[in-house]
Amino acid sequence: MPPKFSLDKIKFATDQPTFERAVGLYESGKVTRFKEDYGGYSAVVSGTHPYNVSVSSRHYDHGNCDCYLGQRNTLCKHMVAVAIYAVMDGKPLQDQDKEIVSSPKCSGKLGELSKVELSETKKAITQAMRYIKPYNGPSRIWFAYQGSLDEGCARLSKLVSELPVNKQTAKLLVDMLLRLDKKLCTGGVDDSNGTVGGFMQETVSVLEEYAKLDSNCIKAFDKLCGQSTCFNWEASLVRMYDERDLR
């Protein structure tokens, strides 16, 4: 039975050092005696010692490992390596499979999305936004909630970093930022760790790069004029719009 999780789920929901170490274990053949069990998978992962590892077929971060971290109910590289094996069935990882985008970047490539690409990107943004949700649970789920915010921002970072530079995509990012702002201001999102706010500031920097590469992108900033936002993140973009005729 194939796992309910995907490689993207593993990559976006795992912290970067753990994911990279797990990839190293997987690619060096350290995952041995892999087998499918009832409700999950088990294997022996070679490390300082041979570790007995099991993961759920539904949630890759649910399972057991007899390493130091695993015995303290902390997701370890051994569990992640077994999860990768379950998804890949032992096949080689491609470079794009291992690539981690930790923050949004400007692609630096001028261009425009087709209607189909634009539609698909909008859907992907909406799907990623679902991880950035209100917090209304008990304190015991706080870390899981923060993990959901991290995953949502990681997914959005990848999407932003792949976009071509154009007024069309600048408008797309402006709309995304306004949606995130609404989540922070009135949507019940608890961004105490600054995950979402930090992502938004980095995306503003991406839009500033857009403006340098294609001045037409500045026209997309008109939607920000007169907006009242959570932490005034739009200020530099509004200033660019106001000064556009002076350039």
Q: Can you characterise this structure?
A:
The protein is an alpha+beta fold and 247 residues long. The protein has two domains: 7-98, no CATH class; 115-246, no CATH class. Helix content is 47%, strand content 10%. It has helices at 7-13, 16-27, 77-88, 95-98, 115-129, 142-162, 167-185, 195-213, 235-242; strands at 31-37, 40-46, 50-56, 63-65. It has a four-stranded antiparallel beta sheet, covered by helices on one side. The protein is elongated and about 65 Å long. The termini are far apart.
Strand content: 5-15%
Could you name the ranges where pLDDT drops below 50 across 5 or more consecutive residues? none
Compute the number of structural domains.
Answer: 2
Q: Span between N and C termini?
A: 60 Å
Mean pLDDT: 94
Strand order of the largest sheet: 1-2-3-4
Give the helices and strands as they follow along the chain.
Answer: HHEEEEHHHHHHH
Please tell me what the overall shape is. elongated
Structure classification: alpha+beta
